[in-house]
Input
Amino acid sequence: MPNCDCYNTKMTDLFGCHVFNDTVMQERLPKGTYRALKQTIRDGLHLDSQVAEVVAHAMKDWAMENGATHYTHWFQPLNGFTAEKHDSFLSVSFDGAHAIAEFSGKELIKGEPDASSFPSGGLRATFEARGYTAWDCTSPAFLKQDSSGLTLCIPTAFCSYTGEALDKKTPLLRSVEALSVQAVRILRLFGDTETKRVTVSSGPEQEYFLVDRALFNQREDLVFTGRTLFGAKPPKTQEMDDHYFGTLKERVSAFMKELDHELWKVGVAAKTKHNEAAPAQHELAPIFATVNIATDHNQITMELMKKIAAHHGMACLLHEKPFAGLNGSGKHNNWSINKPDGTNLLNPGKTPRENAQFLVFLCAVIKAIDEHAELIRASAANAGNDHRLGALEAPPAIISIYLGDELMDVLEEIEQGVTKKTAKGGNVDVGVITLPDLPRDSTDRNRTSPFAFTGNKFEFRMVPSSASVAGPNTVLNTVVADALCDIADRLEGAKDFNRELNQVLKDIIKQHKRILFNGNGYSQEWVEEAARRGLPNISNSVDAYRAFIYKSSIDVFQKHHVYSLSELNSRYEIKMEKYIKIITIEAHTMIGMVRRQILPACMKYLDAVARSVNSVKATSFPVELTMQEQVITKLSEHMQALNRATDALVSLIEQAGQFDSDFIAHAEFMRDKVVTTMAEMRTHADELEGLVDKEYWPFPTYRELIYSV
Ligand code: ADP
Ligand code: MG
Output
């Protein structure tokens, strides 16, 4: 249904019409091939080359019938975006006389993009620059549509020839495998002899801003950096809470509708859309999917948001903090572990046995997050998030877990061994007692926690809005796998299972309860309390990234075969370098805007005021000129200060050129010197914005931007 009339097609027909999904496979593949492919997907096996040949043929026919002429191995390099190189199905006979369409199993399974320009953090020496892409058959192929037509996209992993992961997908898949192995050990202990694998689900809620495209284009900071580097706060932003869940404006609503349609076509189950807290801020939530598909889907969602916004004369901002002083954007990563039949292992269950198993998974998460709090924090760090975490309604930079009162009571009782609140006295015996009903959708749900249990899933709210969810989920899966591994080690060796179970949970709660916090995460008291508890509070990415190369992190990733040491080092280096690049681009943008736009505008206005003083004086009326003189003084004070700070920034950027390959010192310099000088410039520029006649101001202000749509 390539050029279908979306607005008149039934939603259920639209859904997945551009996906080579299970229905299409059943229809088009011979039974044996279909079964073999399904088994490969289910059991995570290698795809047989004969099966691949048949699948490739069917996939090509399907794609071409839908109007596609090209295919691409679609992958997720370490720059955080997606990459594609298009090849046509075209093949020409030796004499050049006949054209045929071809797509072999080999082309489906493996691609060889020349990928020397992607960041590899030293993993891939440039003389052997070729990496290869390999089909991840757990994520279905789909057709991507743009004005030029349709392209068959084959989701792939991207590796070097020595087998090192050059992308975000490969470690994610490895981490799911690691978690699956350990979770199955736990399931066996609770008598499940059947389950071979578990899957991880993710439902990332995506926040974003929409602004008018013409205004967007007038601001170099938005165009180059995705956020405003200047801008005085207007008198009203989100104080009245009138935007959150408010009526959708026509233009926004039309955008959301087109977005829904395009997402449904490629199989993204876009479910919820609404206005967020800040003016011009919105959110989209999909129905959750297995984490590798959810990761692909989220990348597609971000790409489509940007593309479709342009159709409606708008620009979509995915930056974590496009506007200082307003709510930032995040991506709430809802996370759970599931059996293949859909049973959610984070669901408390009904019987004492189910309850006990649930408590094991719950306590594993608590242990994992406390033991690797800094690594979890690092997984959500980027230059943009440094402006968001701990500000306004964003979660604080301190990692803690919210469980709600009912579960907190249960854990307290387990720790102390006696029931107090949840039952009528007596000894607690996990495996024998039933949990009280836990409220699923309590309306007073704590929204200030960075990591909250919400009834049957955890919600990691720190994740940056612009980032891929692959990284945070890779870390989360790995650390939880490790905690489950420790628990399984103890339980498997136990003589008295129930007794050991009680002891294991007791030990975990005792040791890790400091990470549990139900109170207000936005408050200053929590910052102090967290410090007393010894919880880390890491305010910036440069410090946060260090956790990637802590010994505890290297050990856990190596033990579970998620990242090798060199793979981890490369991620660390790439993240630091990206931070440096972002700050450098922001600094250059600021310098340009000040020198070419802000100061010239201020000088023109100053000139106008000075002229008016002179012309008033020339009338020789006895007029008071104090106000005009004050304006002149204030203007020139801030202009001088802004100019001085800009000169300072220029010389800092020059100094930064001397760091060469010492990326740690370079990143620290950017954070300590460059970012602080940029902040100083901003203060003066924003003061000037408040003094200068708006007719003179060289670009659209906050008040125009956030109410532009
Ligand atoms: P909110 O957190 O805004 O109240 P919901 O609880 O309905 O909203 O869900 C938010 C997101 O969590 C959605 O993307 C949803 O699909 C996802 N989600 C729901 N259940 C699970 C689960 N078991 N595992 C992972 N994600 C889930
Ligand atoms: Mg939520």
Remarks:
- Residues 578-706 form a domain with the Four Helix Bundle (Hemerythrin (Met), subunit A) fold (CATH 1.20.120.1560).
